[in-house]
User: What shape does this take?
Amino acid sequence: MVETAEFTGGFRKRPRDPAYARPKNEVPTYKLHKSADLARCWANGKWVGLGKFGSPESKVEFERILAELRSGRRSWISTR
Assistant: This one.
């Protein structure tokens, strides 16, 4: 059964259907925190700081996180 959008005072509300949900990206991405000029990635439901953006240390840390994820370890986000 398909639900129709209901009118709720000025805007249409979509039904809560998984078809509307955005698919999750399972692989973290290397991101820039602009105001602090730091590298970070979203992992395990939280932001993880990696160090100064573009530095070799931050890239090594990011690769470590990706390697732990690929290995299948459940707690792959061990912070140091």
In short: The first strand starts at residue 6 and ends at 7. The chain has a mean pLDDT of 79. The helical segments are 56-70. DSSP finds one helix and five strands in the chain.
